Amino acid sequence: MSAQGLPMQVPAPGLPSRVRIHEVGARDGLQNEKGT
């Protein structure tokens, strides 16, 4: 941990330096079901 009490950030090879998070609606598990 750093002096501020937060973990150090160590970049992993092959991973992006930033990501974007999008909030989506609730999922019911039926999104891929064909209509009847």
What do these coordinates show?
This protein is largely without helices or strands and 36 residues long. It contains no helices and no strands. It is elongated, with a radius of gyration of 19 Å.
- Major sheet details: none
- Return the average pLDDT rounded to an integer: 77
Range of strand content: under 5%
Category by helix and strand content: little secondary structure
Strands, total number: 0
Give the gist of this structure.
The chain is mostly loops.
Give the topology, please.
Layout: no helix or strand
What attributes characterize this protein structure?
36 residues; 0% helix; little secondary structure
